[in-house]
Amino acid sequence: MSEYANDVLVSAEWVEDHLDEFQSDDSSYRLVEVDVDTEAYGDGHAPGAIGFNWETQLQDQTRRDLLDQSDFESLLGEHGIANDSTVVLYGDNSNWFAAYTYWQFKYYGHDDVRLLDGGRDYWLDNDYPLTDEEPSFAAVEYTAGEPNESIRAYRSDVEAAIGDGVPLVDVRSPEEFSGELLAPPGLQETAQRGGHIPGASNVSWAAVVQDDGRFKSRDDLEALYGAEDINGDGDVIAYCRIGERSSIAWFALHELLGYEEAVNYDGSWTEWGNLVDAPIETGN
Q: 103 with 53, same domain?
């Protein structure tokens, strides 16, 4: 594990050492696996891990948006997560949806939330303990904070960024960035047009992690973003297709590197690529 950001990123060894706490009805520690395909959770997960379906439990299906404050409170409280819980999140694809959920926890002001470095795949590949038993914890009261808009970008912010020359980081694949593809192979196409937001740099989400799914070192991340003149001096907006891959980039920029003005545009290409008359560029 990297020798930095240990307050937001924990190793698989650390989680294994705390499995007794994660399985306890005491709400001090909670472990949560987050994915869109929860069948994998049913096949086996870390002992004590709660399973959240990102699409059906962490999104408002009518508005295609984050849960509102009261629904977020209900979800966490019903699963025994308290305001002072140390919450560790993990999931597939090097934590795509877990990183989004981390960002969502921070949006609603949860103080102690962390990612399991490497996610579900790292846990499985290195033979850490698994169970198919689903935990059941006593419900608690949870009170979310007011939304922290300082970590979120909206369409109007992106429109202003284009005119002001604010760095935009498109974390999708080169084929999506160029407009050749509208979505990763096998996933639903959610936009009418392909391409990218004018002026955006293409720094893939995959470039921030090692082959085993764990985050790269501080030096490597600084060099990666520094090559695009992103060094923590001023605003930077990350986006992808639906906001989950860009949450990986936001986590690297804001939480690991401490670039406090980094924000996540969760509307991402699903919103921008469907807007009438919104400017786009194609090609690389």
A: yes
- Tell me the two tokens of residue 92: 């597939």
**Predicted pLDDT of residue 70:** 97
| Confidence class for position 1, pLDDT limits 50, 70, 90 | very low
| Residue 208 structural domain | 150-272
> Do 184 and 237 share a domain, yes or no?
yes
170-202 exposure pattern, b = at least 16 Cβ within 10 A, e = fewer: bbbbeebbbbebbbbeeeeebbeebbbbeebbb
pLDDT band at 120 (very low <50, low <70, confident <90, very high): very high
- Assign 186 a pLDDT band (cuts: 50, 70, 90): confident
Q: Is residue 277 part of a domain?
A: no
- Whether the CA torsion 227, 228, 229, 234 is positive or negative: it is negative
Contact of 32 with 63, CB cutoff 8 Å: no
Q: Where are the alpha helices (DSSP H) in 44-173?
A: 54-57, 69-78, 92-107, 119-125, 155-164
Tokens of residue 117, six digits: 């470095």
Residue 110 resides in a domain: yes
Q: How many CA atoms lie within 13 A of 265 on its CB side?
A: 27
Poorest-pLDDT segment among 60-74, 106-120, 228-242: 60-74
Q: Indicate which residue of 240, 242, 257, 262 is catalytic.
A: 240
Torsion, CA 268, CA 274, CA 279, CA 284, rounded to 10:
60
Q: What is the CATH number of the domain that holds 206?
A: 3.40.250.10
Residue 240 is among the residues annotated as catalytic for this protein: yes
Burial of 128 (0-12, 13-18, 19+ CB in 10 A): middle
Which whole number is the average pLDDT over 120-125?
Answer: 97
Mean pLDDT of the residues in the chain: 95
> Which residue type occupies 104?
Q
- The residue length of the chain stands at 284
